[in-house]
Amino acid sequence: MTAQRKTVYLKHSAVFLKLCRQAKVRVIICKPICFCTAHNLIVDHYRRETSTEELTDNLPNTEDTENATEHNLSQNRVREALHKLTEDQQQVIALKFLEGWENEDIARVLNKPVGAVKSLQHRALARLQKTLLEDEV
After folding, report:
1. Would you give the distance in Å from CA 62 to the centre of its chain?
2. What is the CA angle 79-39-74, rounded to 5?
3. Does the pTM exceed 0.70?
4. Do 114 and 132 meet the contact criterion of CB atoms below 8 Å apart?
5. What's the alpha-carbon Rg for the chain, to the nearest Å?
6. What is the per-residue DSSP string for 85-117?
7. Cα–Cα distance, 32 to 40 (Å, whole number)
8. pLDDT value of position 25
């Protein structure tokens, strides 16, 4: 098991322990609560984790640097555009395009109808397109 998988496994275990300790009555734990709690614990973990990457003396050539700079600028523009979306739209886009989830799974986790997920996705993509095109001008 890789270190990253082990971390995720331990965080998920912590989620279930935390939920079980907080439950006053035995209930079926629903996915949205687990998903949100796991997400928050993992985000907290990576925010606390410090980067220990070593710097090397090997400098990239100019062409690679220009490509990397252009790529970073594009990523920053997309990141800024994503921050302009509503929280629900951000979650749908992240789950659909970054995690590769199906609409039905997203709807189940967010406790929304599939039609609402499709609508959120459509509006989010339209807003992203509009924002990114405005930034180009």
Report:
1. 32
2. 10
3. no
4. no
5. 19
6. S-HHHHHHHIIIIIS---HHHHHHHHT--HHHH
7. 12
8. 45
